[in-house]
Amino acid sequence: MIDITNNSKNLTLVAIDIAKKSHDALIQFANGHSVQMKIENSLQGYQRLWVECCKHASVVRIGFEPTADYHRNVAYWFQQQGAQCHLVSSLSCARAREMLYQTWDKNDRKDTSVIMYLLNQGMSRPFFDPLVHQTMDIQELSNTYHQVTIARTRCLNSLVNHNLTLYFPEAEQFFHNSRSEWFCDFLLKFPTPASITRYRKATFVKRAWDVIGRKQYKLQFLEHLYDIAETSIALPVDIKSVAVETYRIQLQRYIDLTRQRLALERKSEQFLSQRSDYKRLKTIPGVGAIIALIIIAESGDLCRFNHYRQYLNYCGFNLSALQSGQKKGSYKLSKRGNARLRYGYWLAANAAIRMRENSFRYKYERYIKINGGSADTKRKAYTAVAVKLARVAHSIVKNDVDYHGYHEVFRGT
Fold first, then answer.
1. Taking 90 as the threshold, does the pLDDT of residue 368 lie above it?
2. What is the DSSP letter of 401?
């Protein structure tokens, strides 16, 4: 992933410190001459920088540090002009700045010098543009699903820890299924115990019958719910009060977010169903539609990683340790890679070890065989399975084959 082909006599290097409104740029021509520029974040600014870069007929390589999403517009435009766009890591910039200037202080001009130093040392990697490689739609599906899930979880926590606590605390025991909408529909109609007990039991059962849906033992459940409402410790708020009105707004918001998430899941399945890498990933135990979506969205083209170690490094699954002299630190995950990608493999590992007869579960059981009661051992076992999942995902996509599991054979003594 590191490019060291900076020996060309026909190479112009450009270091850009990305910002929201304007960018600082340092141009180093092949003859050693340097030019410092400040350009606005607009088409005119990009064109002005490009004209300056092309004064000498040469290959232009532009390096920049990823900054939110501001760098993506810059990189796309210059790539369309024929420039080579490279990323330098934020950690490398911080360490190089401390080494070069013996201080943590930073400013825009200093940052361009640091980026230029890293470019000259070959400590950069080519920028993978989702739009150019046709994975932007997948990324946006994954990001939107992630944001909807976060909003839905916050709404759920607010309902459980605030609204239900005040207005119907006994109802929390039925609010356990994260994908269940029927109980929210029920609470929209009967938000408080008083909204239930104002009817006779038989009348309440009749009014709530269709709201519950196809639940088994529906009559017993509704009668039990009525008995709970009669002895509830909820605050005696008026059903027509503003407080209950805002409570219903939260319930409706939770229902809407749940339906949006389900719609995104169906959209993802439909959108990715013809992709070869998606089909291959779904053959891995623990990898479903959404986890496969996360892997493709965050990894891009897995074939661009020549070796699985490069991919593990990109995920942040590579091992690192602090060692000096006689002191030898323990090896730990670097966690310098893509956090959402690691999270996807962690979810897949949790699902895989709960399935029957697969190599991932067998690996987990080997880890916890000696000291299975230790939380630290279990965490290490989960991590080992997640790393193996990443290796397998890279291998099957690169070789364009399905995952083939095997049955473990245990011989009794």
1. no
2. -
Tokens of 270: 């439909």
Residue 228 near residue 170, CB atoms below 8 Å:
yes
How far apart (Å, rounded) are the C-alpha atoms in residues 65 and 86?
9
* CA–CA dist 164, 187 (Å, integer): 10
Tell me the pTM. 0.82
Amino acid at 67: T
Q: Which of 81, 63, 79, 56 is nearest to 25 (CA)?
A: 63
Task: Residue 224: count other Cβ atoms within 10 Å of its Cβ.
Answer: 12
- Report the mean per-residue pLDDT for the chain: 87
Contact predicate 281/307, CB 8 Å = no
Is pLDDT at 127 greater than 50 in this prediction?
A: yes
Q: Alpha-carbon torsion 37, 40, 41, 45, what sign?
A: negative
Cβ atoms 29, 81 nearer than 8 A: no
Cβ atoms within 10 Å, residue 214: 6
**End-to-end CA separation in angstroms for the chain:** 49
Between helix 242-272 and helix 136-158 the angle, nearest 10°, is 150
Helix/strand/coil for 333? strand
Could you say which DSSP state residue 238 is in? -
Burial of 321 (0-12, 13-18, 19+ CB in 10 A): exposed
Residue 234 near residue 167, CB atoms below 8 Å:
yes
Is the pLDDT at 98 greater than 70, yes or no?
yes
The contacts of residue 71 (CB under 8 Å, 6+ apart) are 18, 64, 65
pLDDT interval class at 399 (50, 70, 90): very high
Which residue, 327, 248, 339, 340, is CA-closest to 294? 340
Q: What tokens appear for 325 in the block?
A: 């002299």
**Whole-angstrom Cα distance, residue 167 to residue 182?**
18
Residues in the chain: 413
